[in-house]
Amino acid sequence: MFFSTLILQAGGSTDGSESFFDSPAWKFASLMTRAVLVGLWLALVFWTYKDARRRLEDRLMIGVAVATSLIFPYVGTLFYVILRPPEYLEDVLERELEIKARELEIVGGADHCPACRKPVMADYLICPHCRRRLKTACRNCSRPLDPSWKVCPYCASEVKVTPAKALVAEDELFA
Ligand SMILES: [Zn+2]
Ligand SMILES: [Zn+2]
After folding, report:
1. Looking at the DSSP assignment, which residues form a beta bridge with residue 119?
2. What separation in Å is there between the alpha carbon of 167 and the centre of ligand 1?
3. For 77-114, what is each residue's pLDDT tens digit?
4. Across residues 113-142, what is the average pLDDT?
5. Residue among 54, 33, 59, 60 at smallest CA distance from 41
6. Buried b or exposed e, range 97-120, using 16+ CB within 10 angstroms
7. pLDDT one-digit tens code per residue, 133-161
8. Measured between alpha carbons, how far is 24 from 96 in angstroms, rounded to an integer?
9. Distance 124 CA to ligand 1 centre (A)
10. How far is the CA of 69 from the centre of ligand 2 (A)?
11. Ligand 2 mean position to 138 CA, how many Å?
12. Is the whole model's pTM more than 0.85, yes or no?
């Protein structure tokens, strides 16, 4: 009799542990865990979409990245992170523009002759292709001066304007 009650109690206790998995607390905990896992998975899919759009130009590749992240939860996103391009598109564009700007700098103010359109350097006095006069030499230091300059930027001496030219300019002003 005593043993049977013990067995019953023991049985009761096993029933109790089984009922723990049916308990609202356990159900709630397991539901919350699943919700968090699903939420994290969807967040990773969304993150993949956002990140892929900044790194990939091809819409098909963006689709493949998002689909991989969606079909293979967590692992797909990990694969994307490993295989994605290392740079953002805007950084690539900025770098290309910088290189282009530097190339222009290296060419060093290279210009085109207004007469024959052939490339000439900024300090040429005369076009070597068509003999057109491009700049006038400073009377003091002989450096090339732009016709629109009023003073030599190299030696600070006034650029002499012939009286005839000055009169024409004045007439144009008053016209
Ligand atoms: Zn020329
Ligand atoms: Zn000068």
Report:
1. 112
2. 29
3. 999 999 999 999 999 999 999 888 777 766 555 678 88
4. 89
5. 33
6. eeeeeeeeeeeeeeeebeeeeeeb
7. 888 889 899 889 888 888 999 999 988 76
8. 60
9. 11
10. 68
11. 5
12. no
**Ligand 1 is a single-atom ion; what residues have CB below 5 A from it?**
113, 115-116, 127, 129-130, 132
- Distance (Å) of CA 111 to CA 34, 90, 165: 68, 30, 26
Chain-centroid distance of CA 174 in Å reads: 52
What's the 111 CA to ligand 2 centre distance in angstroms? 21
φ, ψ for residue 123 (rounded to 5)? -100, 15
Cα–Cα distances in Å, from 37 out to 23, 32, 69, 156? Answer: 21, 9, 14, 75
- How remote is the CA of residue 125 from the centroid of ligand 1, in Å? 11
Name, in order, each residue with C-beta under 8 angstroms of 100's C-beta and a sequence gap of 6 or more: none
Separation of CA 133 and ligand 1 centre (Å): 8
Residues around ion ligand 2, judged by CB within 5 A, are 138, 140-141, 152, 154-155
DSSP 113-124: -TTT--EE-TT-
Nearest to residue 134, comparing CAs of 144, 143, 142? 144
